[in-house]
Design goal:
Aminopeptidase; about 35% helix; alpha/beta; 15 strands; homodimer; nine-stranded mixed beta sheet; 2 domains
């Protein structure tokens, strides 16, 4: 049974029919549709000489025992956001399944190292607001007491949702033992951005995941009558915020990385008053810790300058942050070589979105990722798509990468 | 009985006690508190040889018959916004009352021309969203069918509220006959802005009311993942809007007048996405029709340029507009001369807010206004205030202006 990339596409479409509707994929973690997707996967795994378990956090593992106990992990996630796309997460899993088939066939059920396919639970965090749940449990990066507080919009707790699929939240940290013999982690994912499409390249080697600094920036000025207040005496909180919304482009040009203001709120927010209070939400990302620090410092300096020049004040709030998680340089080389096995050009790029791979890297496991082009950079949406020729190339490149990673483990 | 400006202040304070609470003035039109304020005024008017009527729109007129049937009108409004200030509107009326007292005394009840004090109904439009109701009825600028649709937050119609104070909405246009013999209209008002305070001047002569162009400006870009989308390929609707928020200061510097963006809405409005749609509300005001047209054209040109440069599109919506209403140049001179009778400096300034005087000017009546300094430019708020020495000067200047207007009518 040789590698059949078209089979992966066919299985992705079958999964879409099974678990999607006219609004897109509906495989939200811990729901019936997600369980159906897992059953779909388990039925496919029955055809292989693998051991299938669900770990104490709810991650699904399929283990193909090898000559060496050292393990190569291939990861993905079947869960989706509500009204999601057909590829995000599922491509990773089903391409990994296809690689397991090829390995099993080539090595008569016993490859040189143990290879494990993992379907992480609740990568998206769409329902409880905590992404990377399953991989964080495995990496030792969860606080079950904090997680026990999470509730979905219907008031159901994460603990209750986990209980409904047979998982006890308090036991989730025990998933860590699954990584005891892990020697490397690889993952294929759609890019979810426009970089490869703009370069007209099907595949790219991921350098790591961006660190994130996420803050609120609130300017305080003075409400004043829109008709009665001359421009020169205004203390317009929106003007200061508007200058920052432009300046983040200058800051990102200078420091690298990306900066986004995704939300603006104005108070009193009426057409007849100068804006007294303007709150913006700022998201900054960089692959390098110093670069990330420079981005955030640059934004603070600019905000303070614009506030002062406009007779306003500014305050900063912390929303969230995480450091950059660079991948393993030798495995990045392996990803690039594997891409060049199947196509003429490769490109190295950072990942803006976080992935389960970041948790594996954080756990100290040598990690790498392979991106396949996304059409129009769209994901988390029913219009998420990738050219089928590119999907086939991505399965082939993951297969080549698997062999390289096996050799690297045995080096 | 000579002019007693301190009495006006005392009466303002008495009215505040009668119709206000700890949150400010509560004289919303057509409510019990507003009726109490009118009763307060009517009791004061009983002491004068004036005829008091309520016209078919609900405006209250006190007429001091003169040698000539030609009429000088002195206007104001007792109604306030909810939680309003003690001076906005009431100062006008009670200062006018004091001038009537002085005239009646000086001319033994019969001044050279007929002088009428008018308390306009519902200047603020706080309850039904239609400001200048009473003066618009008198100027012939109302559509009773449109007004009949208006409802307050409790679902009560304007017609029902008028019925509760004895006014039939369908009859309101008959108020127009009240202006048949009007030869001039004068009004004292607090500035509601910071101009006179910044100049350290108590009083100013108003050039007219600004024309207003009020529009929505909606930029459409492309939602994109905040982490996965390089800065250079973004189509960021907020960036285009932010550039406009700065550019309106440049446009106002070039054209005169004032421009305000008081509200910004962002969609999807989440921290992890570039803004796809950004709607801003733009208010532009100018004393000159060409200047107003230039402001709005300048904003449209800039918005289209910023949209194009940012890969976005822009659409414009009409919210409201009104032309500038300049006051009568000879009466503006009379206001200035009257200010200089009581203090050493005057200043000419436009009015950003609309006033009943604008409706009188629109009706073709020679009109002028006198502003008294507002502390901190604040109005429509319980902290609205004016130095009492300045209030006394304003009553004196209105009195001088009355004599000048009488002479101007008889010129």
């Amino acid at each position: 049974m040789s590698l059949d990339p078209q089979r992966t596409i066919d299985e992705l479409k079958a999964l879409r029919s099974l678990t999607g509707d006219e609004h897109g994929a509906q495989r939200v973690a811990f729901t019936d549709k997600w369980l159906e997707a897992r059953t779909f996967l388990k039925e496919k795994l029955l055809e292989l000489p693998v051991e299938v378990i669900t770990d104490p956090a709810g991650n699904l593992w399929a283990t193909l025992k090898g000559e060496s106990e050292r393990e190569l992990l291939i990861g993905g996630h079947l869960d989706s956001v509500p009204n999601g796309g057909w590829l995000d997460g599922s491509l990773n899993v089903l391409a990994g399944l296809e690689v397991l088939r090829r390995l099993s066939d080539q090595y008569a059920g016993k490859p040189p190292v143990t290879v494990r396919l993992v379907d992480w639970a609740d990568e998206e965090g769409a329902r409880f607001g905590r992404s990377l749940y399953g991989s964080s449990a495995a990496s030792g990066n969860i606080d079950v007491h904090a997680l026990a507080q999470l509730r979905d919009k219907g008031g159901i707790s994460l603990g209750a949702a986990l209980g409904g699929v047979g998982v006890i939240l308090a036991d989730a940290p025990q998933a860590k033992s699954q990584l005891a013999k892990a020697a490397a982690y690889i993952e294929l994912h759609i890019e979810q951005g426009p970089v490869l499409e703009n370069l007209k390249l099907p595949l790219g080697a991921v350098l790591g995941t961006y660190g994130v600094e996420r803050h609120s920036v609130t300017f305080h000025g003075q409400a004043a009558h829109a008709g009665a207040t001359p421009m020169k005496v205004r203390r317009d909180a929106l003007l200061a915020a508007a200058r920052l919304a432009q300046e983040i482009y200058v800051i990102a040009e200078r420091c690298g990385g990306v900066c986004t203001i995704g939300s603006v709120k104005t108070l009193p927010g009426i057409v007849t008053s100068v804006v007294e209070t303007c709150e913006v939400l700022l998201d900054q990302r960089h692959l390098n810790a110093q670069g990330l620090a420079d981005l955030w410092q640059g934004a603070q300096d600019a905000a303070e300058r614009f506030a002062e020049e406009g007779g306003c004040t500014v305050e900063f709030g912390d929303l969230w942050n995480i450091g950059p998680l660079p991948f393993h340089s030798e495995l990045i080389d392996a990803v690039e070589a594997s891409i060049l096995d199947v196509t003429s050009h490769s490109h190295r790029l950072p990942s803006g979105p976080l992935h389960d791979a970041a948790e594996m890297s954080r756990a100290g496991i040598p990690t790498a990722m392979l991106f396949v082009q996304s059409l129009r950079g769209i994901s988390h949406n029913k219009t998420e798509d990738t050219d089928e020729a590119h999907l086939r190339l991505s399965v082939q490149a993951l297969d080549k990468l698997t062999d390289r990673a096996v050799r690297w483990i045995l080096r």
